Amino acid sequence: MAQLHAIYSFSSTNLLFHGPKRDSSQVYHKIPCPRKMESREELGMKASEFHGQAIVKRVANFGLGRGNHAIRAVLADDKEVATSTGVDGKVLHKKLNKVVLAYSGGLDTSVIVPWLRENYGCEVVCFTADVGQGLQELDGLEQKAKASGACQLVVKDLKEEFVRDFIFPCLRAGAIYERKYLLGTSMARPVIAKAMVDVAKEVGADAVAHGCTGKGNDQVRFELTFFALNPELSVVAPWREWEITGREDAIEYARKHNVPVPVTKKSIYSRDRNLWHLSHEGDILEDPANEPKEDMYMMSVDPKEAPDEPEYVKIGIVEGLPVSINGKELSPASLLTELNAIGGKHGIGRIDMVENRLVGMKSRGVYETPGGTILFTAARELESLTLDRETIQMKDFLALKYAELVYAGRWYDPLRESMDAFMKEITKTTSGSVTLKLYKGSVNVTGRESPYSLYRQDISSFESGDIYNQADAAGFIRLYGLPMRVRAMLEKGL
């Protein structure tokens, strides 16, 4: 179970992130939440709910005046929803009580907090997931959330769960999207969304919110997970609703609502980091013809600057999942952390690609996945010993669909879960070790061994043996090539 830190009091308590602990108890400190607005007319709220598409059967404007407030009744399906116009001219659809917001502490999510309170009249619970993005991104969140108007901050350490329950199943399945992408962001979103659903239950929230834009994949990944785990939750996506169109608008909104604007310098790149990878998008990368600048990379050194001597790493694998490095057994998150350091030192795992987003457009991204590249190489190489030809072909075929489902946010789709059961079953004998040579950006296999190896030296050897009689090949070739012989005979009139 993930470690949970819940801060209600916004005291000077420091958030510590030293990895998961065995004590998974929950600690709460309560204070009154920021004052709610007095009336629905003062709120002027907008709704964003995704419980299925609403079909409006008829709309009646009754023209009932009450001061400056016109009342309108909308009959959708068999339910009547009352709406009104507040003093600020905004349309009120539904009152939310408490919203759990995916929170990073950056400009966008800092602005979303007062926007939710203003437009939905709700308490806002900020939620931050530690998936290995680095301690620097978790510093000062308590103060930022308080200054933005949140009544509660919840931080969960999800690193072990992320690697164990999301990354390793994809690794076992061999899931790679469009030949290159190792699904770093795709795997992180469902574990975060799952935790948000859990927090919503813990704090009694009736809605969840995220800061994803309407052009990206992440909005789909978050919301499909919400649907799968708690379809009763309302979902608010401000970027699809508000009038803020860019950074300057957001800064102005923050100033008007007394929200401190983050003073950190905005990166020219859009980045997403977790324990599996670091992605880079934007700026010069938007032109696929441009070569990435070397100073952009953060997890890996330039291969030219990597050590002049190769390093050998032995990866231990049990039933398709890595368990050790050079004979040392480690937890999933610890193992990946160590391999990231080793791989990054040798410039391993840089990928530059143009991919097809789920929403239809193409985008160019650069990814650093040092530890993941090492693990994928080791896992696939061990399968060359333990899986037969037909099984490998079927596994590779299904891996394409598996990757597509994960990329599209369908982690909790029954099809992916069923395919995962298949992957788990066929890799029961994929146990052993693989030795890899790391050198200036390259990963080469130098050895592999398994107690379940299907490789037999006495059969494969060029020397004569009792099991394989070379004379048997003649009959096999005649039968195997019979269709080709018949076609040739037909063409020659034989």
TrEMBL record:
GO terms for cellular component: cytoplasm. Gene3D superfamilies: Argininosuccinate synthetase, chain A, domain 2, HUPs, Single helix bin. Residues 98-260 form the Arginosuccinate synthase-like N-terminal domain. Pfam families: Arginosuc_syn_C, Arginosuc_synth. Residues 269-486 form the Arginosuccinate synthase C-terminal domain. Keywords: Amino-acid biosynthesis, Arginine biosynthesis, ATP-binding, Ligase, Nucleotide-binding. The keyword Protein biosynthesis does not apply. The keyword Thylakoid does not apply. Signal peptide: none annotated. InterPro entries: Arginosuc_syn_C, Arginosuc_syn_N, Arginosuc_synth, Arginosuc_synth_CS, Arginosuc_synth_type_1_subfam, AS_cat/multimer_dom_body, Rossmann-like_a/b/a_fold. Homotetramer. This is argininosuccinate synthase.
